[in-house]
Amino acid sequence: MADGVVKFDFDHTATFIDAMNNGLSHLCSKVFTFRTMARSGVQFCLYARRKSPFRDAETILICREVSEFALTSHDSFDCSLSEQELAVVDALKAQGHSILPMFIVVRRGPSMTFFLEENELFQESVSAQELLCRMMSDHDAARALASTLVY
Questions:
Q1: Which of 27, 111, 114, 117 has the fewest Cβ atoms nearer than 10 Å?
Q2: CATH of residue 46
Q3: Rounded-to-integer distance, Cα 53 and Cα 42, Å
Q4: Does residue 63 contact residue 43 with C-beta atoms inside 8 Å?
């Protein structure tokens, strides 16, 4: 890198979650907090919120970033997880947590998101057109999460 050049490593996921949490707070719904992970080979971030004050079970967002170009340049999108990532998901489910896969779409304008159904994690690919149709803003994601009883 040239002298005097500053490289910023912008965290699109954290920024999107912060904006979504703003919407959740406005809707009087619980917000998500970052959960650290000390496992190599895992390429996602975890954010969680408690389902109930009377249980330890949490709803856990498994967040990954994807570029808009990766979605629009192919007919299908590979959303499969590595062996290490599947082991993390299985361990969380074994503890009674709900898993919600969420992809942050990094693009020229504001970031967007789409959620996957849990069974789609185990498919090799999902139609890119379907995922583009599911994209929503941080405000829409907050409304979706606040209105569902499962998560």
A1: 117
A2: 3.40.1350
A3: 29
A4: no
pTM: 0.85
| Secondary structure class of 109 (helix, strand, coil) | coil
Which amino acid would we find at residue 143? Answer: R
The dihedrals phi and psi of 119, each to the nearest 5 degrees, come to -70, -20
- Angle, CA of 101, 14 and 34, to the nearest 5°: 70
pLDDT in tens, 41-77: 788 889 999 888 788 889 999 999 999 999 999 999 9
Give the containing element (helix H, strand E) for 60.
strand 58-67
Q: Which domain holds residue 141?
A: 18-147
Q: How many domains does the chain have?
A: 1
111 phi, psi to nearest 5 deg: -65, 150
Residue 68 lies in a domain: yes
Residues 113, 150 contacting (CB under 8 angstroms): no
